[in-house]
Amino acid sequence: MEAHKNSKDKSGITTGSVATAASLAALLTIEDNNPEYVEIQTPTTKVKVKIEKIQKIDAKTAKATVKKPNYDDPDITRGIEIISQVTLNDEDGVITIKGGKGVGLITKPGLQIPVGEHAINPVPRDMIKTNLKRYLPKGCGATVTIIIPEGEKLAPKTMNPRLGIIDGISVLGTTGIARPMSLKAYKDSLRVQLDVAVSNGYYDLLFVPGNIGTRIAQEKLIINPDQIIEMSNYVGYMLDEAEKLKEIKSITLFGHAGKLIKIAAGIFNTKQSEADARREIMTCYAALCGANQSTIHEIFECITTEDVIKILDKNNLTDKVFEMIADEIVNLCELKYDIKFYVTIVKMNGDILTPKHAHLIPFTWKEN
Hints:
Blueprint: E1 12-13, H1 15-30, E2 37-41, E3 46-50, E4 53-58, E5 61-67, E6 81-89, E7 95-99, E8 102-103, E9 105-106, H2 122-133, E10 141-147, H3 151-154, E11 165-166, E12 168-169, E13 177-178, H4 183-199, E14 204-208, H5 211-220, E15 221-222, E16 228-230, H6 235-244, E17 250-256, H7 257-260, H8 278-288, H9 293-300, H10 305-314, H11 318-336, E18 340-346, H12 355-360, E19 364-365
Parallel strand pairs: 7-10, 8-12, 14-16, 14-17, 17-18
Antiparallel strand pairs: 1-13, 2-3, 4-5, 5-6, 6-10, 9-11, 15-19
Helix pairs in contact: 1-2, 4-6, 8-9, 8-11
């Protein structure tokens, strides 16, 4: 197949395939082949890739640039340039792969690559070696350096900072072909956080729905970033995966009321299109805590959780309602999982809605 050329295509090639194509083009340039395209072997198929630039530096060194083609996915690496510099040496058949500027550096255990290595995953490394070995001159080896000029700028938009990968992005791919982000791929990217936490010796973890929970936790708690696990909407999936790691002792569910209260109704996928029972949950618990009929109707008509909180504040019911909700979250989670659970529910501004439960969590609160 030929690497796709426009954003309407439904699949493309991975950063690993781009790095492989650039490496092969650089090697061929040393031999004065000056390729406009190269054909690489991926784990699943052969792919023809366009080469943007080539430069022969000397008799043993050349570099080539390949632009990752656009395809139908919001992947932030679409359109980026990846450069490979290849230098021949006398190490017969040995290919050494290094990361240059813009390729992330591994600083924490728990990933596929050891600490201190650049974040070029095993499949791309194998692809580069397999494709280059077919063209290595007899008696020669090669040093391959992958450079991603935009890597440092793009890194904060990825999961890399949370996983301890610094100064750049990762060179990824398991098949060589990039397809629109699948649910499985997204869940896998969330799960990696658990491996990093456990590998770094953290067994009491704090699960948050997303950025709001992360921000408030970092503002309010003395906690290592590796202990904060973003679960997105996939509460049940992440708890299932956590239970498989027997080292994990406790999980604190921490975050905004609008997401966490759904768990009290047994909803373990909190995506709005899957289940949005917030007003029903709030109405039910307000009634259980003694709200009068007028207040119950007022709550049921609310659109946002924050609006409900204002009504509960007005009726001195906030603590009662949210402490009862937190009780039920703990009960349901401990029925499903053999893990100790704690809960802290917060408002958008970080105010604690469950002070009694917050006092129990295995983390230290910062002084105000």
